[in-house]
């Protein structure tokens, strides 16, 4: 089996709005996913709404149609497990699968605005769903991230195309049953090639697959990918906002979950879920939103900037700053000559001081000055007239 990367082909499905797939008419494109594209569709007779995933590659047809054959008439029901309604092939030979209409959106669309904590909580929920399916007698043949959804209450949902009965009858459906869809091949563990065709994954294989999905949700890429997938995952700011020890602990958790040696992985999905929950509990103080994480990164950068903080040893070795040659330093004052503290003033400190304004004299004194002046003038006039 060739190992592939998870990526998004923008020309994945040649379907267009208005195309008819059997009795279903495509209404509106919802999201690009690694396997193809999700559409909102409507039944041409009953006008019933539905979600339809149109696969990108015709070579996925054999695996998809065999998965459909196994899921027909499944009696087990769970609120977050959705079984297919219908399936078929497009005129180009690409498979499509129809699911009941429900509130929510594909996980790889919801993850773009989700916090790192929320993404890891979805991983825990995925582990719990698969454990409940195992208890009900179903095993996971492959894990395609395209078939993971998020409901209106932020709960993870599984479009159950690859859940098969873990009994002998299901395992005898043919060698093609061991074939994996293209998008699920990147999630398959190294020992998957040695597994008998059609047999559900072991606990260690499911841990590996969920671990690869965790890498995709946390880093936006798989361990073997040099570049992130084309679906943007806003994880960088929150990743940088983590404390170094928390980041290293999460890296170690991802390395364990995706280890090539099954003995180095968590024993089962329950142990993986406990490891993720343990990391979340230990990192309870991390930023819970992208905005808070970005603010934390900016504060960290300001705190570590060389102009804001200098090592003590480097500061001690720096020579004292010399004043400019034209500057004149004021003479030092002794403690005895210091003026008393002044009261705070509302006037601006810059600029020349305003000229003092004389205080107006009392009105009575001004009147006396005017009377005296008038008497003096009258006396001078009388003296001149007598001469």
From TrEMBL:
Biased composition annotated in UniProt, kind: Pro residues: 351-361
User: Region (Disordered) spans which residues?
Assistant: 295-361
Q: Which UniProt keywords apply?
A: Membrane, Transmembrane, Transmembrane helix
Residue ranges spanning the membrane: these are 367-386
Q: Does the keyword Cell membrane apply?
A: no
Q: Please report the name of this protein according to its UniProt entry.
A: Protein kinase domain-containing protein
Which organism's genome codes for this protein? Answer: Inhella proteolytica
User: Which InterPro entries did the record assign?
Assistant: Kinase-like_dom_sf, Prot_kinase_dom
The molecular function terms in GO held by this entry are: ATP binding; protein kinase activity
Residue ranges annotated for the Protein kinase domain, each copy included: 24-280
Query: Which Gene3D superfamilies is this protein grouped with?
Result: Transferase(Phosphotransferase) domain 1 (1.10.510.10)
